[in-house]
């Protein structure tokens, strides 16, 4: 059974993985045997993350580039082609949050959230899939969704639209790339203890609401997403395609 989850010999690119959920996913896939490429927008954040995981004995690469910039993404994949680095697993994790009521939200901020959380998954996903298809060995694409892939909350309209889009983009990827033995799935994290959620964690009323509205009665931890990511990246999920798995402590089940 353990061989089903073994990622030895596979290479995974995880966008937005210099910290937070992405970093925990990187460590999890590395522990399962994968070579992992750390990504972020700035080298000064990517390099320490790479160094940390290398110090733990893992096979880690790093590259800073803007996932919303098609030229930057294409250049990164060209560099990996030249270095004979074949990406078998892609996790589209890069994301930002911006809280403001829709009637006060400017178009530039709306577009920035959509581009980072949704459009980047399309840009990076198509570059990875083109190469997976050409190699003929299949592959795995894992998109990071959210509870807002399924339901809305006030003040996060752009994020909700983007993460709802992630659910349907995942299904579109599965429909088009499934015939090439590429499985595209998504993970929908619940309320997780991350830097991005710090304003909510520090809000006593919101913190109490999260705990009282969730059957698990607590926030999730970033490393609690790693097992699902390893499953979706491995042979264990070879007939799972187009799904979004919510890792939310049961939150959606009691709505």
Write the layout of secondary structure elements.
Layout: E1 11-14, H1 20-31, E2 35-40, H2 43-55, E3 60-64, H3 70-82, E4 89-92, H4 107-135, E5 139-144, H5 157-177, E6 182-189, H6 198-201, H7 204-213, H8 226-233, E7 244-247
Parallel strand pairs: 1-2, 1-4, 2-3, 4-5, 5-6, 6-7
Question: Could you provide a short overview of the structure?
Answer:
This protein has 255 residues and is an alpha/beta fold. The protein has helices spanning 20-31, 43-55, 70-82, 107-135, 157-177, 198-201, 204-213, 226-233; strands at 11-14, 35-40, 60-64, 89-92, 139-144, 182-189, 244-247. Helix content is 43%, strand content 15%.
Number of strands: 7
Largest sheet: 7 strands, parallel
In the CATH scheme, what's the topology name? Rossmann fold
Number of helices: 8
Mean pLDDT: 97
**What class would the helix/strand composition place it in?**
alpha/beta
Strand content of the residues, in percent? 5-15%
Mass-distribution shape = globular
Number of domains: 1
Unreliable runs? none
- Give the % helix: 40-55%
CATH architecture annotation: 3-Layer(aba) Sandwich
Rg measurement, Å: 17 Å
Strand neighbour order, sheet with most strands: 3-2-1-4-5-6-7
- Helix/strand order, N-terminal first: EHEHEHEHEHEHHHE
Q: In CATH, what is the class?
A: Alpha Beta
List keywords for this structure.
single chain; 255 residues; alpha/beta; Rossmann fold; seven-stranded parallel sheet; 8 helices; 7 strands
């Amino acid at each position: 059974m353990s061989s089903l989850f073994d990622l030895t010999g596979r290479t995974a690119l995880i966008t937005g993985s210099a910290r937070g959920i992405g970093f925990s996913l990187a460590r999890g896939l590395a522990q399962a045997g994968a070579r992992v490429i750390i990504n972020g927008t700035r080298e000064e954040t990517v390099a320490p993350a790479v160094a940390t995981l290398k110090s733990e004995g893992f096979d880690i690469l790093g590259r800073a580039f803007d996932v919303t910039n098609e030229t930057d993404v294409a250049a990164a994949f060209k560099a990996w082609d030249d270095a004979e680095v074949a990406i078998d697993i892609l996790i589209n994790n890069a994301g930002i949050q911006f809280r403001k009521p829709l009637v006060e939200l400017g178009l530039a901020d709306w577009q920035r959230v959509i581009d980072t959380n949704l459009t980047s998954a399309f840009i990076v996903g198509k570059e990875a899939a083109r190469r997976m298809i050409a190699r003929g060995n299949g592959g795995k694409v894992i998109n990071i969704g959210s509870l807002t892939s399924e339901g809305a909350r006030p003040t996060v309209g752009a994020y909700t639209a983007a993460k709802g889009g992630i659910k349907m983009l995942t299904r579109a990827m599965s429909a088009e790339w499934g015939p090439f033995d590429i499985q595209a799935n998504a993970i929908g994290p619940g309320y997780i203890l991350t830097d991005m959620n710090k304003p909510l964690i520090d809000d006593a009323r919101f913190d109490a609401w999260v705990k009282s509205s969730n059957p698990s009665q607590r926030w999730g931890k970033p490393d609690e997403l790693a097992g699902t990511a390893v499953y979706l990246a491995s042979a264990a999920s070879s007939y799972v395609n187009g799904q979004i798995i919510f890792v939310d402590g049961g939150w959606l089940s009691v709505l």
